[in-house]
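#lab-general

N.A. 3:47 PM
ok so I finally got the sequence cleaned up, no stray characters, all 568 residues accounted for. can someone with queue access submit it? mine expired

B.Y. 3:52 PM
send it over

N.A. 3:53 PM
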Amino acid sequence: MARIPIFLMALVLFWGAIAEAEYMKYKDPKQPLNVRIEDLMKRMTLEEKIGQMTQIDRSVASAEVMKKYFIGSVLSGGGSVPSKQASAETWIKMVNDFQNGSLSTRLGIPMIYGIDAVHGHNNVYKATIFPHNIGLGATRQVNILCQFLIKQTKVAACAKHYVGDGGTTDGINENNTVISRHGLLSIHMPGYYNSIIKGVSTVMVSYSSWNGVKMHANRDLVTGFLKTHFASGVSLSQIGRVLTGSPLHPMLTTHSPFKLESLLELTWQIMVPYNYTEFIDGLTYLVKNNFIPMSRIDDAVKRILRVKFVMNLFENPYADDSLVNQLGSQEHRELAREAVRKSLVLLKNGESADIPLLPLPKNASKILVAGSHADNLGYQCGGWTIEWQGLSGNNLTIGTTILTAIKNTVDPSTEVVHKENPDSQFVKSGEFSYAIVVVGEPPYAETNGDSMNLTIAEPGPSTIQNVCGTVKCVVIIVSGRPLVIQPYMNSMDALVAAWLPGTEGQGVADVVFGDYGFTGRLSRTWFKTVDQLPMNVGDRYYDPLFPFGFGLTTKPIRLRNAHFVKFS
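B.Y. 4:20 PM
back already:
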């Protein structure tokens, strides 16, 4: 009789053990965050951990690759798209296919999808392209930025590039920033303080150097300062580079313990877009041969998992298709158009406030629109749009060029003549009421934007001289930064900095023709000559063409006569 209770007790204990084995705390959202992380960590193999530390490019990813190598993250760099002019549905299917591969692994750890979104996810065809950040800064209106960003959900932001890459010698990409520690912390670091306080999940380390030391090799600033003081999230290496900026491939084939250990000491997820198998093999070798301690791997993986848990990826791993119809929606385009209007900075308006040129009359008999940037959507959108370096022309996405916006705005009886680079004789014989000249610089990204002269792209200068020397003209500069314009100031009747306005060129015409007033203010100092650079407010010899914060204002025509004010 006594054997039956013993048998039943053993059976209960057996099934209890089975139930305990099947219960995985990391999958339970009711468990505390640290409990979930620790539970998952103790279940992971070295192979699974290294996979989580690996970020690969979309072009080499597949469900099979995600499953086989336990890949933790996939990246779409500039121009890395599922297919040309891919729809939102195509993007979602691609991401979810990758995710299926991740979820089919033994532990089902979801991958995180990364976008090289320097000014929004502008890889997507038909997306609304907002003004670049320099233009958004000129609005001086936080509410615009909030409306633009507040609706973004399930996004883990990245602050980059840590630290000082905005102060390199001659402004050259990946160059050396020469500054004291006090200067670095007081000038270049505050943006990271604020970003981390506001909740960014990742920080990307820069290719640049500080006083000759590569940031990827700067243990003091990355591990000592960033990690110790205020970063509980993930630090990313830049794409495929270590220490000297050399590719990962030769480093890993020689299993250099110094280089890779140093990198791992500083960063927690490694961007190895293409040679990921060599990275995985090399890191596995170094850990198994005790060049890199397991504690370093565990620290990195815990931080990566923390971001994924906080984002609720374990509960909601798939891309949301409910927002598909919002891509390029009228609501988004109207908001971008408003941002364009408020980002425009009026730098000159006639020889005096008593005789302004702007706003322009809509009912002129005949007007000239000239310049390489008047009818070029790619130039308006700049770099990091559809392609890494951006594109020229009007076929890259959907939008409104400045020329089209002008035609949409003027009176139907007004004849609009468009000639990209007219000679002076053409202008003289045209009997134009006034001219609008739109010039600037072509799209660029990163090193391709390095310039020692910062001049308006040809034939822009000759277009200005040919047109503005003959007829009343307003010049609109389309650029991602201040350019050399002092030599042409006397020939211009009015001058507008439009920055890189994006797809909604109608916002430019809204203000130029007086439906709205100019309100933008310079978000950086506009120099006279490049010899003055770098130039900042507070410099002992601060003698700019236009100071930081400068901007003339106008009132809309409907508010009677235009009124002009100069911000001090």
